[in-house]
Design brief:
Layout (H helix, E strand, L loop, with lengths): L6 E12 L2 E12 L3 E5 L6 H8 L7 E6 L2 E3 L4 H6 L2 E4 L11 H5 L6 E2 L2 E2 L1 H14 L15 H13 L6 E5 L7 H16 L3 E5 L3 H7 L2 E6 L2 E7 L5 H9 L19 E11 L5 E11 L3 E6 L5 H8 L7 E6 L2 E3 L4 H6 L2 E4 L3 H5 L6 H6 L7 E2 L2 E2 L1 H14 L16 H13 L5 E5 L7 H16 L3 E5 L3 H7 L2 E6 L2 E7 L6 H8 L11
């Protein structure tokens, strides 16, 4: 039993276990009534998982929740909504083929006899949008709106719930302009003044200090600390997010990068965002031959998009790219592979592997041209190359003709890396290469990275893991909201705080540590 009039919802000792990972570990969390309750932590800290449990999207493995002194549990979002809980997702959950009014009143429909009361929906939508200072044609299809307008529709659909008690906002300002953010903050203050509680997740520290009342920090799925915003400085948040300010011993390099030529140079890269704005905004950098160049940033920073531009998956980008001093025009992926570029994608299962093929065919797939003899493939040449790569990067496999899904996650990841290495790349792009694999496999993947870099392969690595990127990268570029906010030389004096502060920066920061 839990009963505190100041608390709108109490989560007690919540666990959430997925196969192979514990997303939440004994987390207790209070949603204070009539306050903006900020929830903060690094990528993978468990913030969104906890919010999904509160909103009825997920169910906890263990633990209890209480509202108004009574234990509650939600099998789905409908049950949570009946208790007055709404959620604004980071990824918009709208119906692009329906109108603004239909989206706003989805699941809150009013009927007039046997029919849906469209007039009521239209009038109600106009009222709530006027309140948000964002009037628009309520008969417009949501798919035709720009992203910022869609975000306002997502917010509006929660405000029409007359029984709203708790509103969860997961990165609600990620697609909004500064003026729109100001309007949103005004609405948030109106809601809290009327007794509604808000749970607010944001990667923008300046927003948290401006709008937040109380902050709770999660790290690695565990509760770390909480405090009133008025009682803490910004540094308190950073320290609690990343733990003690540590530096890390880096693996020494076998080559002198100062003597190496520039292998890849990018100048003024822009990538437009659908609906307006930029996914990448004037990003410039250069990477030397044999360098391990780290790219760090939070979700939505533009890391994967940068990799996709370089690999020919985003031909709409603009800017100049130089490969070994020669300016190139990027048209498609096949052309980039011919030029000596390869990518280990973030989504191993979805875009890295063909799950119906065996281990050997997955390994050789990107290099089939090499094995063509007349109108047939040379099985002998294919076997020889695949055997070599299995040996070189230590893929643990009893029989290369087994299904790819018979391998562990770490060995599947090695197959993806091996597939790239078989194309003899000059530049290897690695997007979250250690995601979803155990610590032993991670160590082996990092050994592969260092070994090939020492042989002169230029490697760009995206990682969300602070410790990992600080250990493996010679230099680290930080992206925030599509902007390059910092560039650090890899050194033992570089700290987690440096990277975290740069990744949350809303403006350009010039930081270089020697």
């Amino acid at each position: 039993m839990f009963d505190d009039p100041k608390v709108a919802l109490h989560c007690e000792c919540i666990d959430k276990i997925y196969p192979g990972t514990k997303a939440l570990d004994n987390v207790s969390f209070d949603v204070l009534r009539g306050k903006v309750n900020v929830l903060i932590g690094e990528n993978g800290a468990g913030k969104s998982t906890l919010m999904k449990i509160i909103a009825g999207i997920e169910q906890p493995s263990n633990g209890k929740m209480y509202m108004d002194g009574k234990e509650v549990s939600f099998k789905n979002t409908t049950e949570a909504q009946a208790k007055g809980i709404g959620i604004i997702h980071q990824e918009l959950s709208l119906f692009p083929n329906l109108t603004v009014a239909q989206n706003i009143f989805m699941n809150h429909e009013k009927t007039n006899g046997l029919f849906v009361d469209n007039a009521y929906h239209t009038e109600g939508s106009k009222k709530v949008l006027k309140r948000l200072q964002h009037q628009m044609n309520t008969n417009s299809l949501v798919g035709d709106l720009r992203v910022g307008q869609q975000q306002m529709v997502e917010i509006a659909r929660n405000l029409v719930n007359e029984d709203l008690k708790i509103l969860i906002m997961d990165e609600p300002t990620s697609s909004l302009s500064q003026q729109e953010v100001k309007v949103l903050f005004t609405i948030m203050r109106e809601l809290t003044a009327s007794g509604i509680s808000i749970v607010y997740i944001s990667h923008r520290l300046e927003e948290i200090m401006e709008i937040g009342d109380h902050v709770t920090v999660l790290r690695d799925g565990k509760y770390v600390n909480d405090a009133d915003v008025k009682d803490i400085p910004l540094s308190w948040i950073v320290t609690n997010m990343v733990g003690q300010n540590k530096s890390y011993t880096r693996t020494p390099r076998a080559i002198d990068l100062n003597q190496q030529p520039v292998a890849l140079k990018v100048e003024h890269m822009f990538l437009p965002k659908q609906g307006g704005g930029w996914l990448l905004n004037d990003v410039s950098f250069e990477v030397k031959k044999g360098e391990i160049f780290g790219i760090y940033g939070l979700l939505g920073a533009g890391r994967s998009e940068l990799m996709e531009c370089l690999m020919g998956l985003r031909p709409e980008h603009t800017g100049d790219v130089y490969l070994n001093g020669e300016k190139i025009k990027i048209k498609n992926t096949a052309q980039q592979i011919e030029r000596g570029m390869a990518i280990v994608p973030e989504d191993r299962q979805g875009t890295g592997l063909v799950q119906t093929l065996d281990i050997e065919k997955n390994s050789s797939l990107s290099n089939l041209k090499k094995y063509v003899k007349g109108i047939l493939l040379s099985k002998q040449a294919e076997d020889k190359d695949v055997d070599r790569i299995i040996k070189d990067i230590h893929i643990k496999v009893a029989d290369k003709t087994l299904p790819i899904l018979s391998l562990s996650g770490g060995n599947q990841q090695k197959v993806v890396i091996g597939k790239c290495l078989l194309t003899d790349p000059q530049i290897l792009l690695m997007d979250e290469p250690s995601r979803g694999i155990d610590i032993g496999a991670k160590t082996e993947v990092f050994d592969i990275i260092h070994e090939y870099a020492d042989q002169g392969l230029t490697i760009l690595v995206v990682s969300s893991e602070l410790k990992e990127i600080m250990n493996i990268a010679d230099r680290i570029m930080v992206l925030s909201n599509g902007i390059k906010t910092a560039e650090f030389e890899g050194s033992d004096s570089l700290t987690e705080d440096d990277l975290v502060l740069a990744s949350y920066a809303g403006h350009h920061v010039d930081a270089a540590l020697e």
